[in-house]
Design brief:
The protein is α/β, with parallel strands linked by helices. The chain contains 16 helices and twelve strands. Bound molecules: manganese (II) ion.
Length: about 425
């Protein structure tokens, strides 16, 4: 299809309907912010800087281990996924890059895919390797691990796969490799707890050696699943140990769903910033031990508190001195089974944007004073004052100025995109996806 002009028509029609109410809301919010000493235009300029990558695996209907219920018009391949990603970006104006999964979305012709993405106004974020499942025709199995496997030949295969991901990413213009390992033991005694980590570090050192100078390597921790007793890279501490062993281009990636219940994730973020190893995020939300619900759907305050740490760090001279370019990579990592995946990603992008903009409103000078004075109530109120502010008009204005939609979900529905692709892609069917960490 590629011609998405019908989308612009839908955006224009919806925006026209909503413009008067939006402008009144924006003006009222501007007045409210001015009384708090904040300049609306300045906040709008900062708000326009957020960029979040969407996952290539998030455009097919996700599933559970019990089953999958495909949606009509699922992408038939990477080209269709890029088009869907372009739709999300046109509507939300904050998702200019795609995070690719290899081999699920391995481009046959990277040069051609890069050209197509460019035409659609997209670039590529970190590439994600996969050594957590066996692919058809694969020589050796990852049943008992990959980079931590006891057999050097399996480790070699996993290393080569990661190096291949770097090569593909290089051709696409990516600048980072994300490694999530399923390696671990499901029973006590199955795996030597120290030696398995030694093997992961040794394997990753070989991957790291193949990293271009301007690339970063992210390791993603996860406490359990698929291993149910002892995952090798189970928490941020182990991820940090790996980063230290590898070198200055290695960083830790925080997937919000990869923590035990009640974990203080914003504190994990603060610690990783303190040791200068925060690489980026996989955003999603989680109620129990899941990691695929829409970002901000369950714990918007947690998401806000994470962004508060990030904004605070970005403004901190001490952090800036250690790392002049403090720019964690923001990616969405989710794919569940009941929503239209495009609507799901639109919602998540908007909620991430919302948390970020609310964090921009925190009166940090006042907060510091309240913290110094141990004034617990006023310190908490300072955070809540920002969190309780309805920043929807700011998000809408950022989108509108960038040619996006005041209300992206309404504009998406108005465009009837899903019905169009359902017809166009009929019979093409997306292939079953697995579950990415
Ligand atoms: Mn992840």
């Amino acid at each position: 299809m590629n011609d998405l002009s019908f989308l612009d028509t839908a955006v224009a029609a919806c925006n026209e309907q909503l413009a008067a109410a939006h402008e009144a809301d924006l003006q009222a919010l501007g007045g409210q912010l001015a009384r708090r000493g904040l300049d609306l235009e300045r906040v709008l300029a900062q708000a326009a800087r957020l960029e979040v990558a969407v996952p290539s695996w998030g455009f097919s209907q996700g599933g559970t281990r019990f089953g999958r219920f495909p949606i009509a018009g699922e992408p038939r391949g990477l080209e269709d996924k890029l088009q869907d990603a372009a739709v999300v970006h046109r509507l939300t104006a904050v998702t200019p890059r795609v995070s690719l999964h290899i081999p699920w979305d391995k481009p046959e012709n990277p040069r051609e895919i890069k050209r197509l993405a460019g035409e659609l106004g997209l670039g590529f974020d970190a590439v994600n390797s996969n050594t957590f499942q066996d692919q058809p025709g694969q020589r050796l199995s990852y049943k008992y691990g990959s980079l931590a496997h006891t057999d050097p030949a399996v480790r070699r295969q996993a290393i080569e796969h990661n190096l291949e991901c770097i090569e593909i990413g290089r051709q696409l213009g990516s600048k980072a490799l994300t490694v999530w390992l399923a390696d671990g033991g499901s029973f006590p005694g199955q795996m030597h707890l120290r030696r398995s980590l030694d093997r992961v570090i040794e394997s990753l050192q070989e991957v790291y050696a193949g990293l271009p100078a301007n690339w970063r390597l992210f390791t993603e921790h996860k406490p359990f699943e698929p291993a149910f007793y002892s995952t090798v890279v189970q928490d941020w501490g182990t991820s940090w140990m790996i980063a230290q062993a590898l070198g200055p281009q290695a960083f830790c990636l925080v997937d919000l769903g990869h923590h035990l219940p009640n974990c203080n994730i914003e504190q994990v973020v603060a610690r990783l910033i303190a040791v200068n190893r925060l690489g980026g995020f996989h955003f999603n939300d989680s109620k129990f031990a899941d990691d695929d619900l829409s970002a901000g759907s369950l714990k918007p305050y947690q998401l806000f508190l994470i962004f508060h740490e990030l904004v605070d760090a970005a403004e901190d001279p001490k952090v800036r001195k250690a790392r002049p370019k403090f720019a964690p990579a923001y990616m969405i990592d989710q794919s569940h089974n009941v929503k239209d995946p495009i609507e799901d990603l639109i919602q998540s992008a908007v909620e991430i944007h919302r948390a970020y903009v609310k964090a921009l409103l925190v009166d940090r000078r006042a907060l510091a004073v309240h913290q110094e004075n141990n004034d617990v109530v006023m310190a908490e109120r300072t955070l809540k004052a920002a969190f309780d502010t309805d920043v929807s008009p700011i998000l809408a204005e950022v989108r509108r100025r960038a040619g996006g939609a005041i209300d992206p979900i309404l504009a998406y529905r108005e465009s009837a995109y899903r019905a169009r692709v359902a017809e166009e892609r009929a019979g093409g069917g997306g292939r079953d996806r697995g579950v990415l960490g």
